[in-house]
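Q&A log
Question type: sequence-to-structure
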Amino acid sequence: SVSLWHSGVGEGFNRGAQEFGVSAGAGVGMPIFGSRGHHHWAVGEARYGYMLSDVLGERTWHRGNWELLGEVFGGMQFHPNSAYIVGGGPQLRYDFATGHRWVPFVDMGMGLSATDIRNGDLSTTFEFNLQLGGGAHYFFRDNLAFTIEYRFIHVSNAGIEDPNQGLNSSTGFIGISWFF
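Response status: OK
Response body:
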């Protein structure tokens, strides 16, 4: 069994520490990067993470750990009409070692999605998703954290079929994360 913390809560994770989390949120569609529509949605996610490294960058502002996560998500577009979206994929996250119970992070990922969102921006059920975001865990117990996160999410079929304007969303999540 791997010990979770390098030397105490917020001091960085030990390599091999793991995370399981669930979150829910809502996204506001943004007509940017070619997308024409405001696609607003509600979405939930589950994720599993594994710490790839021991604490890196000792005595620097960017001290922390690399984490590899697998994520599945699903939700419903509620504007301009009702439609589903499901998907998943890997994410790479950097967890900062701050020395206190707030542990911020940045992450990025990509994966596959399925959706019936159309409205002139998407044309196929099969889509790709790209994600870039950041957030923070607040550890109210040594192994249990409240998690807040912002993500920019782009959905597109990479030109497989037209139209392919893409969907862009500014999405916020709140959830709980268990570390072991």
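Response note: The mean pLDDT is 96.
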